[in-house]
Design brief:
The complex is a heterodimer of chains A (447) and B (340). With 447 residues, chain A is mainly α. Chain A has 14 helices and 8 strands. In chain A, strands 1-2 form a two-stranded antiparallel sheet. The longest helix of chain A is centred in the middle third of the chain and has 36 residues, at 214-249. The termini of chain A are far apart. Chain B is mainly α. Chain B has one domain (5-328). Helices cover 74% and strands 1% of the residues of chain B. The longest helix of chain B has 32 residues, at 187-218. The chains are: A mainly alpha (447), B mainly alpha (340).
């Protein structure tokens, strides 16, 4: 098979698998701060048991995030050598900053979180929890800086020509605050909070259905609903502003997201559809003028379409279209679920509504799918560029690596990751079945 | 040698990788020794001796890799793509080690634990061996073409000198791990480990002498800088003293000082490696003109400056967290409900 395709499949597969874990550790970091904070404030042992339970889950997820994350850092060099030479001056600093500022913080204080319960004072433990949560959020900043720079390069200049060209930093802060960074980091954060919130909701709903650990499950669920609601509604805002940013800076990607072909014409928004890339036609349900309206508040405003770009400069249309529409549909569904949950909580029927608890149990996969589809949209939509407008993906490969080697490593990763995923689900299931540690509700510490 | 930005980054990347070797070295060494214990409790103590710190230790590798990418992108790209299969195997080793440590004690089943014990031990040995083989190849030189791309095959990376450095690395980490474990254990297990320490020291010293002789005979360019600047001879001297001091401290029952000696020996060894390489980062062998040096492989001066600021801000924090974590988890390992 073709070297470029194999290398892209390997990168896509390994990053997609990796991304299952950091979203949960970012989001659960926030939950741990809330839960442990509630414990310190109220001295209610339930919150203590809750924190300890979720710390264990957090540790399991974190271990997989580390194991699969190191693969990502090495892969830039192993498979994308020419790209690494091109971007190293800009991209490398972000990765190094991530290591120095965030990873040490996160992994160091995680030790106290997991193993330090009896070794440090409760407030020290809580500070460690805050630092771990902060470290998780902070590490996302640097990697999103690096990725956003690939989407909307800024603050650099190109030195050299042809094979020897490379990007060099002119202004560090322009690199960091490149045009897409703020929209994308906030979109990533909300996606992470949603992933963790629906994860907590799912486990809690499972206990309620099984009639086990009821107080614990109710307590966790309430925190979960608050975060799910906030994150899902804010995700609409960050999503909207991300799309507007794409319209401004990556018009070919936006055109692919809605399969908008005419060079310049008002554009509608498809609820769903299927793109025939040969015929340049979409079969589906469209709301006319809505895309134009969302971008410029005017349904008659023209939007740049795919025909404004040479065929070799267009991303794969149907793949981007489908990923984007699945993500948006799930985003709307999550808002609906969070609203129903909040409504049922207010009316007091949340914990008895079995059908809804079943929905909650299975809802855990939704934000994960939406996060993956969002990255598909972002990364496939950037094609054929590896650095938008500067370097094509096919020109970024390693010169000394052959397709046979990549096929071998791809098979290796596939086998290991299938094994890891099966074991992860198995252990997660055991931990969930094991449940939280017992605690005394009417201890003298109650505030 | 003048202390320009490129040299500073040569030293800083070296410091990060030395930090990695010293810290993760004892984790990997613990892994290599893991199967020499027999009971479940002993294995759990071994695991928990590195439990709170191993993933923080691995961050030194991640950060070292990031710093190499940022400061010397040409080296990062050439080495990682040139050593493709070796890097993939290293990743396999590191993934299995991480997962083995985390998963092993999560179930009671003997088969489950046995499987992860073996994974932990083999992946630790594999990772150490590959790290050593990479160092050996960098010292020996690899064939590079005019675009600084690796122009050889995977099998060429397994020549005798590289394998010797690989085995020496395993021996070094085993010795370092044994001394660390001596510090962290007590009672019967500690006596058992005490019996391992001398064989690991002897094993290492034999490998070390062989590597030194092979280097002097077959890789003479590694000692050019020492010959050109004799005051640097203090480093191999310190190295020899640090190694010789280890059995002495062990004999007097001063495990912590033995461990510090072992750390100092590792730092001196890597300093020697750095001095031998300077100013090359990857020697091209046979075509020396294609070598990657700290000048032709570096990022722009602007980036090196920005990164220096990042390092000056970040490294004190890193050292502060690392030392406070080690302080909190000082002393002998005691198993409790949160242990692995």
């Amino acid at each position: 098979m073709d070297l470029e395709i194999l290398s892209r499949i390997q990168f896509g597969f390994t990053i997609g698998f990796h991304y299952l874990f950091p979203v949960l550790s970012i989001g659960l970091g926030l939950f741990l701060v809330i839960m442990e904070g509630a414990y310190l404030k109220t001295k209610n042992q339930m919150y203590h048991s809750m924190t300890r339970f979720w710390v264990k889950i957090f540790a399991l997820i974190f271990a997989l995030g580390v194991a699969t994350g190191i693969v990502m850092e090495f892969q830039f060099g192993t498979n994308w050598g020419t790209y690494s030479r091109f971007v190293g001056d800009v991209f490398g600093s972000a990765l190094a900053a991530e290591g120095i500022f965030a990873f040490f913080l996160e992994s160091g204080f995680l030790a106290i979180l997991v193993f330090g319960w009896d070794k440090v004072k409760p407030t020290t433990h809580f500070i460690s929890t805050i630092l771990v949560a902060f470290g998780a959020h902070f590490s996302a900043i640097w990697i999103v800086v690096a990725n956003s720079w690939q989407q909307t390069p800024a603050g650099h200049h190109i030195v050299g020509t042809g094979e020897n060209a490379r990007a060099e930093i002119v202004d560090f802060w322009q690199v960091v605050f490149n045009p897409s960074f703020l929209d994308r980091i906030s979109h990533v954060y909300m996606g992470a909070w949603q992933a963790a919130a629906f994860f907590v909701l799912s486990v809690s709903a499972f206990y309620l259905l099984k009639n086990k650990h009821k107080d614990f499950a109710r307590g966790s669920m309430k925190i979960g609903i608050v975060i799910a609601l906030i994150a899902s509604i804010l995700q609409l805002v960050t999503g909207h502003s991300s799309a507007n940013m794409v319209a401004e800076h990556q018009p070919a990607k936006l055109a692919a997201m809605e399969a908008h072909y005419p060079e310049s014409a008002p554009a509608g928004l498809y609820l769903f559809g299927w793109v025939d890339e040969g015929e340049e036609k979409v079969t589906g349900i469209e709301i006319p003028g809505l895309l134009s309206f969302l971008i410029s508040w005017d349904p008659a405003e023209p939007v740049t379409g795919l025909n404004a770009f040479e065929p070799e400069d267009r991303p794969p249309v149907n793949l981007v279209f489908q990923s984007y529409h699945i993500m948006v549909a799930i985003g709307m569904l999550l808002i609906l679920l969070a609203l129903i949950a909040a409504f049922k909580w207010k009316t007091g029927s949340l914990f008895e509504s079995r059908w809804f608890l079943y929905v909650m149990v299975f809802s855990v996969v939704l934000p994960q799918i939406a996060n993956q589809m969002g990255w598909f949209t972002a990364e496939v939509g950037r094609q054929p560029w590896i650095v938008y407008g500067l370097l094509r993906t096919k020109d970024g490969l390693s010169a000394s690596v052959g397709s046979g080697q990549v096929l071998l490593s791809l098979i290796m990763f596939t086998l290991i990751y299938i094994l890891l995923f099966a074991l992860f689900i198995f252990l997660l299931n055991e931990k969930i079945k094991g449940g939280p540690e017992k605690y005394e509700l009417k201890e003298g510490h109650m505030a | 040698m003048s202390l320009d930005l490129n040299t500073i980054w040569f030293i800083l990347v070296g410091v990060l990788f030395t930090g990695y070797a010293i810290l993760d070295g004892f984790d990997l060494g613990t892994g290599a020794l893991h199967l020499f214990t027999s009971t479940d409790k002993e294995r759990r103590i071994m695991l928990n001796a590195i439990g709170p710190v191993w993933d923080g230790n691995e961050v030194w590798l991640v950060t070292g890799g990031g710093a190499l990418f940022a400061a010397f992108p040409e080296v990062y790209a050439t080495a990682f793509s040139g050593f493709y299969m070796a890097i993939m195997l290293l990743l396999l080793g590191l993934i299995f080690r991480a997962v083995a440590i985390d998963f092993r004690s999560k179930r009671e089943s003997t088969t489950w634990r046995q499987f992860w014990d073996i994974s932990f031990s083999f992946s630790s040995i594999l990772s150490s061996l590959l790290i050593g083989i990479a160092l050996g190849n960098i010292a020996w030189g690899i064939p590079l073409d005019g675009d600084f791309e690796y122009a050889g095959r995977f099998i060429r990376l397994l020549h005798p000198y590289a394998l010797l450095v690989g085995i020496t690395t395993v021996a070094l980490f085993m010795m370092h791990g044994a001394i660390y474990l001596l510090m962290k254990t007590e009672g019967e297990l500690q006596s058992k480990i005490r019996a391992w320490v001398n064989p690991t020291i002897i094993f290492f010293i034999i490998c070390y002498i062989l590597t030194t002789m092979a280097t002097l005979l077959y890789v003479p360019h590694m000692s050019d800088n020492l010959k050109a600047f004799p005051p640097l001879m203090v480093i191999p001297l310190l190295n020899a003293l640090a190694i010789a001091n280890i059995p002495r401290e062990i004999h007097h029952g001063r495990e912590f000082r033995a461990f510090l000696s072992s750390c100092a020996a590792m730092a001196a060894l890597l300093a020697l490696f750095g001095i031998g390489m300077y100013p090359d980062l990857i020697m091209s062998n046979p075509l020396a003109a294609n070598s990657l040096t700290i000048y032709n492989a570096a990022s722009s001066a602007k980036t090196l400056k920005i990164m220096l600021i990042i390092a000056i801000l970040g490294m004190p924090l890193v050292i502060a967290y690392t030392s406070s974590i080690y302080w909190i988890f000082r002393g002998k390992v005691k198993l409790d409900s949160s242990s692995y």
